[in-house]
Amino acid sequence: MPPTKKLSVLGKDDDGRRFLTGTFDEVNSAAPHPHPVPSFYSTREHRRFTEFADTVRTHRYIGLCWGPPGIGKTLSARHYAGVDSWERWQYDVGDTVGPVPPRVLEVRTAFYTPTVAATIKQIDQGLPRACQAISYAIDYDELGLVDPYVHDASRSSGRTELLIIDEADRLKSTGLEQVRDYYDRHHMGVILIGMPGIEKRLARYPQLYSRIGFAHEYRPLGPDELTAVLTTRLPAQHADHDPIAHATALATIARITAGNFRLLDRLATQIERIQTINDLHTLTPELVGAAREALLIGH
């Protein structure tokens, strides 16, 4: 479990001024500071991902998910595993411990993202740490304590049912082999999330590829859902708005973003910025065009 936040590395009469002048790396805590949780829309693709993840978790297979950047793969995976609630809960653990987030207890899913230059040692330590933390949290919720020597169901991450590995493209051949080895030694499902083409790359590793039981291609938003998301994000709130201009602007945004969640969020943020600067209260195609020119479009 995360340590109490009142522990300090400073001794008596030590004000820690060495941290001001010395050369130190980042201090890695158990969880980052709480951050605003982005809006989440339960789209058709997210519901498909949820069904896919439930199946992998139930049958304890390896699942493979891929799709273009920015369409919501990571958001869906984090929402499924309850990562935002988990990180906030870990950060708040101190002398008092609040209830474990219900979503974590429901899906019993660990979420792991390898760094760009992840070493063999980092992966070898990171996978069990992410999974073991979930098992210990389940123990704490049910028993009020964590004692794996007495309550041994949580040993070796035994109560974790699914491991989601985001940015799986970062794993080199040895990293993929570590994932396969970890999967073989534990009774849990594993989902690898990556870019298009990862399914062809993994075909070069027959021992891992033969263990993939489910595959899921994450697709961009369809026109109907894209319009619904846009209407929620950029509603017509002002009484003087032109309904035809507003609808045309939404159609222009849909054409520019092509169902890409990340691009949609960036463009909407740029539109809101321009509206604030110019004290505008309506949405027009000209406003969308101005926001488009101020934005570097990339997929």
Percent range for helical residues? 40-55%
Q: Calculate the terminal CA-CA distance, rounded to whole Å.
A: 39 Å
Q: Averaging pLDDT over every residue, what do you get?
A: 88
Name the structural class: alpha/beta
User: Helix segment count?
Assistant: 13
- Unreliable spans are none
What's the main sheet like? 5 strands, parallel
**Largest beta sheet: what is the strand line-up?**
2-3-4-1-5
Assembly of the depicted chains: single chain
Nearest-angstrom radius of gyration?
Answer: 23 Å
Instruction: Output the helix-strand order.
Output: HHEHHHEHEHEHHEHHHH
- Strand-residue fraction? 5-15%
Shape: globular
| Beta strand count | 5
Task: Characterise this structure.
- With about 300 residues, the protein is α/β, with parallel strands linked by helices.
- It has 13 helices and five strands.
- α2 packs across α3 and α11 crosses α12.
- The chain is globular, with a radius of gyration of 23 Å.
Q: What structural keywords apply?
A:
299 residues, 48% helix, single chain, 8% strand, 5 strands
